[in-house]
Design goal:
alpha/beta; 2-enoyl-CoA Hydratase, Chain A, domain 1; four-stranded parallel sheet; four-stranded mixed sheet; 8 strands; about 50% helix
């Protein structure tokens, strides 16, 4: 699992103009689960960075927006593609075309944020609980679930189900799957090794 966060009251308010677009894409393609812990402003490229994570945990008073159009620009780190897939085309267009900045509560209502915290202490607690839940699960199964969801999103339902079946069959051949069954039968916590 990989978690990213900012410092103080800013998650990320943008990148330098010479920043390579592959920076955000490198987060999006990591096979391990990723979590963005949004401790404040996630504006422009900052929101695009957060969108590349699998799960977003944020403060209620965090701010989210893709305001590039206000300056005659458009998102270039995947924002026009990821935001509509998460919040729907109408909400994404409303945010981008009007340069509207929303708070954490509205972001949660739209589905942009997965978990919401009232303050920094609660943010740390929730982020820790999410991390603990992820790292105690079978890492190979987590990677395959992520693969099925992300690749299946652009497939027909029949293709997606076929992908799921193939990944399920692949998982049955792993040592982690055998450990999961053995731990269940022995009524103990599994010790997954990622193999």
């Amino acid at each position: 699992m990989l978690a990213i966060t900012g410092s103080g009251s800013i998650f990320c308010r943008g990148f330098d103009s010479n920043c390579d677009a592959r920076l955000v894409e490198s987060l999006a393609v990591i096979s391990k689960p990723t979590v963005a812990i949004i401790n404040g402003y996630a504006i422009d490229e900052g929101l695009e960075l957060a969108l590349a994570a699998d799960i977003r945990v944020a403060l209620e008073d965090a701010h989210f927006g893709l305001t590039q159009i206000h300056r005659g620009k458009l998102p270039r780190f995947g924002g026009t593609q990821r935001l509509p897939r998460i919040v729907g085309a109408a909400n994404a267009l409303r945010m981008m075309l009007t340069s509207r900045v929303i708070d954490g509560r509205e972001a949660a209502r739209l589905g942009l944020v997965t978990y919401l915290a009232k303050d920094h202490h609660e943010l740390a607690r929730i982020a820790g609980e999410v991390a603990q839940a992820i790292i105690t699960r079978a890492p190979l199964a987590a990677r395959l679930v992520k693969d099925a969801v992300l690749k299946g999103y652009d497939m027909t339902i029949d293709q997606g189900i076929r992908l799921e079946e193939d990944l399920y069959a692949l998982l049955q051949t792993t040592a982690d799957r055998a450990e999961g069954v053995k731990a269940f039968l022995e009524k103990r916590k599994p010790l997954f090794r990622g193999a």
